[in-house]
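Components:
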Amino acid sequence: MENLIVDLARALTTWLQHLGLSPFWADLVLLVLQWTAIVLIITLNVLILVWLERKVSGFMQQRLGPNRLGPFGCFQTIADTFKLLTKEDIIPSQTDRLIFKTAPMFFIIVSVLLYAVIPMGQDMAVVDLNIGLFYFISVGSLTTIAILMAGWASNNKWSLLGAMRAVAQMISYEIPLAFSLLGVVMITGSLNLSAIVAAQHPFWFIILQPVAFVTYFIAATAELNRGPFDMPEAEQELTAGAYTEYTGMRWALFFLAEYTNLVAVSALAATLFFGGWQGPWLPSWIWIIIKTYLLMLVFMWLKWTLPRIRMDHLMSFSWKVLIPVSLINIVITGVGLEIFKGMRW
Amino acid sequence: MSYELLAPEIAVAALGLLVLAIGLLLPAHSRKAVGYLAVLGLAAVLVLVIANFNREAVFFAGVYQVDKYTNFFRILFLSAALLIFMMSSRYNHLFGERQGEWFSFMLFATLGMMIMVAAGDLITVYVGLELMTISFYVLSAYLFDDRLSAEAGLKYLIIGALSSAVLLFGMSLVYASSATTVFTEISGALGSGPEQPALLAGIVMLIAGLGFKISAVPFHMWTPDIYQGAPTPVTAYLSVASKAAAFSVLVRLFLSAFPGLSFDWHLVLAVLAALTIVIGNLTALPQTNVKRMLAYSSIAQAGYILVGLVAANSYGLKGLLFYALLYVFSNVGAFAVVTAVEVEEGDAELESFSGLSRRAPMLAAVLTICMLSLAGIPPLAGFAGKFYLFAGAIQAGYLWLAFIGLLMSMISVYYYLNVAKAMYIGASRREERLLVPTSVSTALWICLLGTVFLGVYPGPLSGLTELAIAIFSIG
Amino acid sequence: MSDFPILSAALLLPILGALLIMILPPRQESSIRAVAAVSTLASLLLSLGVCFGYDQAKGGMQFVESIPWVRDLGVSYALGVDGISLPLLLLTNLIGFSAVYASWHTEERVKEFFALLLLLISGVMGTFVATDLFIFFLFYEVVVIPIYLLVIMFGSSKRVTKEYAGMKLTIYLLIGSAFLLVGLIALFVKGQALLGFPSMDIGTLAGVDFPVTFQIFIYCLMAFGFGTLLSMFPFHAWSPDGYAGAPTAVSMIHAGVLKKIGGYGLIRIGLLLLPAGARYVAPLIAILALGNVVYAGIICLNQRDLKYIVGYSSVSHMGYVLLGIASVNLISINGAVMMMFAHGVMAALFFAMIGHLYQQSHTRNVGDFGGLAHQMPRLAVGFMLAGLASLGLPGTVNFIGEFTIFVGAFGVYNLLTILAISGIVITAVYILRTLGGVLFGPRRSEWDHLQDLRGVDLVPLLVLGGAILVGGILPFTIMDLINSGVGQLLVQIGPGSVGGIF
Amino acid sequence: MNLDQLVFLAISGFTITAALAVVWSRNIVRSALALILTFLGVALTFFNLGAGFLGLVQILVYAGAVAVLIIFAIMLVMKPDPGTTNPTTPSRDTHYLGGLLAWLVVIGLGLAIGFTTWPSLPAGPVDDDAVGALAQLLLGNYVVAFEAAAILLLLAVVGAIILAKGADKI
Amino acid sequence: MIGLNHYLLLGTALFGIGLYGVFAKRNAIAILMSVELMLNAVNVNFVAINRFVQPAASLGQLFAIFVIVVAAAEVSVGLALIISIYRQRRSVNLDDFNLMKW
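Structure:
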């Protein structure tokens, strides 16, 4: 059970090579299959997540949430998906059509690319990059561009405003996000996510780096444009921010990408601070799913509990609170490490 | 390794940060105080450098070199900054609440220059250069309500970024040819014999990139605009110190990284120098704005300094260093007067200088003497400097260059004297005396005495330059 | 006596005076004048002392002072005088002293005027006593800027504006000096290569045997540089305009001594350091000299402005000096130096008189005057003295100079000398016509208000006129001195024949 | 044509096309987006050269920050008609001169590079721990440059704030 | 076999394109973008040289990192400048910035 997926992949490779493919092409086919699997999982996952989010919000607001289709309304999202897929694809006039069309694709591609380095179980990272964490931050920073593209191409003032807010916010919170991860990196001395997971054997890093986790979590919320930091798509002010003009399938792609990001960020948090796939009894890949889902529930809990924060407060919170805190955390970690080394010596 | 020899850089960086912080903490009306802090701090660093003049050390396997050459230029940059801080005390009011930041940017620019001159490696040179240049982008645009200033900042940015790119490409080709970026290792790696074409292309691009920084023709196009638009103290600093910094790099680069080139880079530089001198002086002739005129003249001055590198012998290099230092006194003196007049009159047009000799005899006399020094009239410092430079050039066989240079320097007297004429016989718009604060007049006196003393008795400084260039192996 | 740095003292006194004047408040005009007069007088007395103290029998450089100045350039602050520079030093102080009195009545910006004037005098003096090339050139160019400022601040705009005149004069001289400087630096660099150590000392460099082509080249540069200063044809255009624009004192010093730096330089530096070059180029110089004499003389015939007449006539006279130098023999060079002295006092006197006249009448046009001898007899004496000296009347010092030059030059350039002598005729024509027009003829009542020279105004007349007569009647006083210097110089450069360029 | 060449050609073709789009587009936003593609192309080149860390830095700093800043600034200074936001110079002379100069530089440098024989070192194994090596250099021999760069960034931040705020009160 | 030359030529091409942009474009931001192209060209060079000439040491990569850092600083200052000048003139077209004669 533990090595189910890894064994499967290995068997597949061997079989492909038996068929007469060179190792290179065999690897390539495997890669393609892996990505397909990831995309499929993500899509399925999102179906569940959307349902979950609606249920959670219903629970928070003391209502039932979706409850007609299937037990507990669990087929509601599937129905919604069909609705979105069959809707007319509207592109407003006066838009920059090329950019308008590419923005959602770009967004989803970037989001999916994030999964390349996350270890989904023991030895289960698609690419075990030695600078995996850095890869995650770098590629993650590209999402901003997709939002900008969408906002600008829509030729709509709310879209543009939403996009600019989103970008300002995301750029500002990228810094504490990256800084908060440095504490972990300093302790492990590696940017390799598998190594980081391995390093959490006795203690999870949440114990050693609580401040970093809190900073990371707040910054991640802002990165995801989720409440209470959802200024860029505040319905009451901007209809739907950068996505205002998008309908049907394109809008669904954005929706998909947002949830994909949510999963990715949560999975990273689980990996960095909660021991990743480590856990007793159950197979590793189940452990990470459990941890990720728990974290996502916290995200949802926050979103439906806290009121939205004003734009300027939001910016100054990043620059005046989060960044200094994360910097101080780095300093303290460094000092602590030196002391620890000194004691051991 | 004696890391205390890095103290000047560390001190300037710390001073810059301190000034920045204090400037923000102080209430707006008392921010002038950071000026005193900056001046005192710089003076202390200057004393430190002078006290350790003879101590040398090579850090990080040649990447950073503190030697007498470094110390000479450190003294140059620090004293230029000091003089400019002193002379700009009234001008600073134009910066409003942002005086503290102004001082710290100037200090960071100084730090960049100090790193440039000490750097024995392309990477460090580049970073120092950019530290200086980016400070100057901001400083050039520091008059926020002034359209010219913003324009100057933008133009400087574009030309500066372009030149950095060219310089970098050149550096990359040099790196490709030698597989190292450390000067001393480059010379070893290149060996002798005919150079690879890529290396030549790289050297040409290095010359071009640094040519922008020293505003040598044909890379001078936007210099006058930048100089005219930028706040006058910044212009002064830009013209004396950033140029000297670029020259310090050029000299170190050519004499320690490429000493044995068979490619005749002297000739390339000689042509550049001649063009710079001629075009700088000729375009300065019709100017009616004194600041702009000084900008053109500073192009020409860069040409003269370049002559020293063309010669690349003992006299030439001594002349280069000598001229760079005297240029600090003469040009800062001239700009100090321009600043004082500009503060009073609102602009630096020639009419604003009319009748200055009656309103402020001291200012008029300093401006006249400093400009004559720039023109190379004895017994002022400029003459001694030019003597060294052209003695070097003639010794190296560039008689024609000496001809052009000296002839044009005499022609330059025309536009300098035009200003003197306005000051001495022009009718003044106003009659009341123009008073200058103590700090400004101190700076003026230092510039005046420096200019005269170096001209009448150049011996000590030439001894100093001789020490400084001893690190290069030249004939 | 021997230890006292008498030359430095003479040199620095006017500078001290200038500094003192700068410190004095501008209102204290009388003390400013007094300072100027005292410092120039002291300087004059010192230079007279040098004259009497100079041991003619011994000859050579005397009153030598030398302080190492810039080690790596081989520069030392070296002063000294010999038979060539001593008369010119004396001339400088005579004229400087008179110039202070000639401009006694300056009203505006007295402080600046006298400070600059004293600097100017000091600078000119320095070129004659310096025995180091660097110091020589330093003083050489020092004079340019005070002159410019004096011209634009105190000059007069008649045919050309004073700004134009000042700028033209300055730029011409500076361009000339640029060539000169190239030559000097090249000389220094070559000298260092040949000697093995850097030296700027004229005596040391004279011992170096420079290659002939190098000498020719450098001498051409020097001839251009010094020639411009000497207003050698065709580089003379600055001279008349400059004089016309300049205030009296500047005209006096400029025509009287400054130009002589050119001649002095050609002899001291050109001839001594580059004898082969000098001899090679000499015929060309001689031809240009003829151009000076004839061309300027002819132009002079058409001039109506007094200052232009004297200006062009001085260009013309410089032709004789050039001819003397170009002949390169003992007699001719003796004559050239003598002529320089003679022309100096004469021209200075002339300009002093014109200055006084102009100050009174505010015109310089010959046609406006007539019969001034009636109203202003003393002025007329001055004019006559200067005029007759100008046309080389025996009994004046000029006669001695011209005569010696012709004697010396005839042996070398027969035809040219004869043609040059014809220049005297031209001179006679315009000088006599001018003198006659201005001084004689019927009394014109519109000039009745003019005041004659009196009080301090008489000083220039007495000093300069005295010098003309003493030199003319007792020529040996100066001639022996000059001879001792020139003789040694010629011995030093050795024999050789003139020519080669054609 | 082997795989190596194919990959190189694909990446450089992509990069150069994107770069040309930057200068040829008349719409500044599209130029900026093409610039992002160029950055990504260069990042791919870095990956191809075995400089993974640098490729990621390239993506993070250039594509993620610099390009976004540029687009942000574009939107702040946008004109209503996007099709004319990125004009080429109206002066034909400057235009042709620029083109000519660019061609000369490309051809000249190309020839210079083409005729050069480089030090014949084999393209040895790629250093796996590039990050570690870079860190050693950064905090070792190049610590001065490192510190200077730190100050440079501070300076840029303060300077940008000052300039963008202009004469307003802080 | 793809060697150093190929990468250097790629760099040169990018450099040339950027150079053309600097001269031909009039929008200040576009010029800034062109300069970025040139800097990227340089980085391609550095990394390629690092790979082919000096695979053991990471000097080229180090240089490229510094270039990237500096470029980021340069762009931020540059854009701030452009915004400040836009506030005064309502234009970012370089041809409009001619208060001083060129």
